[in-house]
Each structure stands twice: as structure tokens, then as C-alpha cells.
Design a protein that fits this description.
There is one protein chain. This protein has about 170 residues and is mainly α. It folds into 2 domains: about 30 residues, no CATH class; about 100 residues, no CATH class. About 60% of the residues lie in helices and about 0% in strands. The chain contains 6 helices and no strands. α3 packs antiparallel against α4. The longest helix is centred in the middle third of the chain and has 35 residues.
């Protein structure tokens, strides 16, 4: 595979690179990738590149919290409003479980953050469940009522058994 050439029309010196970073982020990313690949170290926008690499890790932690929030919100709805269970809720639970497990597999260093992420996500999950069900806050436990293995387990559906999943387990 040939080494990409830096485009002389868009190549930026370190002084002008922040301008491209601020005006066209995608073009900045492409340019930085080309400069890295061609080892043009003096032209790399190092301060912004360092910032962006750091933000990638924060984005992965945020994605973990978001997925857990949606997943637990649906588990709460499943448990506290069994009369409204649907294939849509079931699909959301399955998709969020798979995507959360895939995120953890792809980013094993997120494992130590799981307990904190779970607690933070539960607050959002309660808000989601309250908003979708119109049930009062005191309906839901103060702390997360589910173990992580249950939340991520493909056979756990809290509350009354459901025909949608066969034998749900608590």
C-alpha cells in the first residue's frame, strides 16, 4: 500500500493547524493521519492531537455509562410495568446487552470502571424509567437492584415471567 502524501494545499504547519482543527475537524483528522503515516513529525498538531486521543478514552467510558443507562432503564420498565412489555423492549434489552458486552470486549481496560459506571448509569436509568412509565421516583429502589451478571446476562428479565422470553429468571 503506498504511503499517502500530505496535500500541499491543506498541509498545515503547527501554527496554522489549530485553525483547520477549529474550522473543519474531519479535514484536520485526515491531515493528521497522513502526517503521522508519512512521519512528518514537525507538521503534526501535537497539542490538539494529545487532547483528542485523551477524549477517545473518555468517550468509551461515556458510551459504557450510556449503554448501561438504557439497558437498566428498560429492565426497570420491564419489571415495574409488565403489562406494557413488547417485542420492542425485548429488542432494546438484547441489543444493549450485546453492544455493552462488545464494548467491554473491545476495551478490556474499562472493566475497573464498571462499578462506578453502573452506579452513575442507574441514576439515569431511573430517570428514563420514570419518564417512560410516569411512575413516581419512590417506585424504584434507591440503588441498583440488579447484579452486573444479571444486567448483562441474556436470560435475565426481572419481575413476572413473560411469554415474550419464555422462562424469565430473577
Amino acid at each position: 500500500m503506498p504511503t499517502p502524501e500530505a496535500n500541499p494545499k491543506t498541509a498545515k504547519t503547527p501554527e496554522s493547524a489549530p485553525n483547520l482543527y477549529e474550522t473543519d475537524f474531519y479535514a484536520w483528522v485526515q491531515e493528521q493521519a497522513t502526517l503521522l503515516h508519512s512521519q512528518q513529525w514537525n507538521h503534526i498538531d501535537l497539542p490538539n492531537l494529545i487532547e483528542e486521543i485523551g477524549s477517545l478514552g473518555r468517550q468509551q467510558r461515556q458510551e459504557l455509562r450510556n449503554r448501561l443507562s438504557v439497558l437498566m432503564g428498560h429492565l426497570l420498565k420491564w419489571e415495574y410495568q409488565p403489562q406494557y412489555r413488547s417485542r420492542s423492549w425485548l429488542a432494546t434489552l438484547r441489543i444493549q446487552r450485546r453492544d455493552t458486552l462488545r464494548l467491554l470486549k473491545d476495551n478490556p481496560s474499562l472493566q475497573p470502571d464498571l462499578d462506578d459506571a453502573l452506579q452513575e448509569a442507574y441514576e439515569n436509568a431511573k430517570d428514563l424509567a420514570m419518564g417512560d412509565t410516569d411512575l413516581p421516583e419512590q417506585t424504584f429502589p434507591l440503588g441498583c437492584p440488579y447484579h452486573l451478571s444479571e444486567i448483562l446476562g441474556d436470560r435475565f428479565y426481572p419481575g413476572e415471567p413473560s411469554e415474550l422470553v419464555g422462562n424469565s429468571k430473577r
